[in-house]
Amino acid sequence: MPGRILRQLIVHEPRLRWPVPAELPRILDNARVLDCGRRGKYLLIRFAHGTLIVHLGMSGSLRRVPMDEPLRKHDHVEWVFDDARFLLHDPRRFGAVLWHPAGDGPVEDHPLLADLGVEPFDPAFTPGHLHAGLQGRRQSIKQLLLGGRIVVGVGNIYASESLYLAGIDPRTPGSRLSRPRSQRLHEAILRTLGQALDSGGSTLRDYVNAQGAPGAYFTLHAAVYEREGRPCPRCATAIRRIVQGQRATYFCPRCQKR
Fold first, then answer.
1. Stretch 95-100: mean pLDDT, rounded?
2. Dihedrals φ, ψ of 175, to 5°?
3. What pLDDT, on a 0 to 100 scale, did the predictor assign at position 21?
4. Buried-state track 228-258, b at ≥16 Cβ within 10 A, e below 16
5. Interior CA angle at 184 toward 180 and 185, to 5°?
6. N- to C-terminal Cα distance for the chain?
7. What is the reported pLDDT for 146?
8. How far apart are CA 31 and CA 76, in angstroms?
9. Element (H or E) spanning 8, and its range?
10. What confidence tens digit (pLDDT) does each residue in 111-162 have?
11. What residue ranges define each of the domains in the chain, with the CATH number in brackets?
12. Average predicted confidence (pLDDT) for the chain
């Protein structure tokens, strides 16, 4: 997309997580894409007069397709360039396509982005940053990781795996993590995310990437996630499953300490 002129934005279904602005096709008519970026899970398509904020929801995809390919069910938004065409496919309609005008200030100040924590591979994400963010927090460490206000990118699968690797019970209040335990968790987060990236990522069973391939390879190597009742790789204790904030958590009750 960068450098190309968006000839037409076509909204086939505006009822996503938040309604697609009705005026968006007019705003972006024949506008040139300056560059594309990302903040957390939000894709940022930048124009001179503002930024398009795109979220894929739980199982959405943004894929390039042939110019004459017919629409499929759940293809909701279409980007048409002179020699390229992109479709947002979102079966659950949990995604979003929103507009942030340049006059409203930096896109990072948008309400959806302003409270996001640091990126996990940013030099600013240090053991000290993690420990400082946990101070005074009574919420469980698993919920704090999922909240994304300290660090982004540690989703449900990766939180369970990181806490297992660090030997921390997911129910432990954040404020109870000492500096050494925070450092172990920091190292575990980077290691877990690095392994997931190397193996293709992990997600819902029905997800496919932009090339149509499934993205659930990392789950094959998970130590605890979706392994309820199976032996812990370290001590052979049965893995437990609990629910925290309506999300499944998996852990070893012997290896992971409060």
1. 98
2. -65, -15
3. 97
4. eeeebeeeeeebbeeebeeeebbbbeebbee
5. 115
6. 48
7. 96
8. 20
9. strand 8-11
10. 999 999 999 999 999 999 999 999 999 999 999 999 999 999 999 999 999 9
11. 5-109 (3.20.190.10), 127-251 (1.10.8.50)
12. 93
Dig out the tokens for 197 from the structure: 């990236």
User: What does each C-alpha distance from 10 to 17, 51, 57, 87, 101 come to in angstroms?
Assistant: 17, 17, 19, 10, 19
Number of residues that this document lists for the chain: 258
| pTM for the model | 0.84
Q: What is the pLDDT of residue 59?
A: 83
* CB 196 within 8 Å of CB 120: no
Confidence of residue 212 (pLDDT cuts 50, 70, 90): low
108: DSSP letter: G
In contact, 154 and 146? CB cutoff 8 Å: yes
Counting beta carbons within 10 angstroms of the beta carbon of residue 2, is it exposed (0 to 12), middle (13 to 18) or buried (19 or more)?
A: exposed
* Pairwise CA distance, residues 24 & 33, whole Å: 15
User: Minimal CA–CA distance to 66: which of 87, 84, 79?
Assistant: 84
Find all residues with CB under 8 Å of 34, minimum gap 6, and list them: 2, 3, 46, 47, 48
Is 11 within 8 Å of 77 (Cβ atoms)? Answer: yes
Q: How far apart are CA 21 and CA 89, in angstroms?
A: 18
Round to whole Å and give the CA distance between 111 and 116: 10
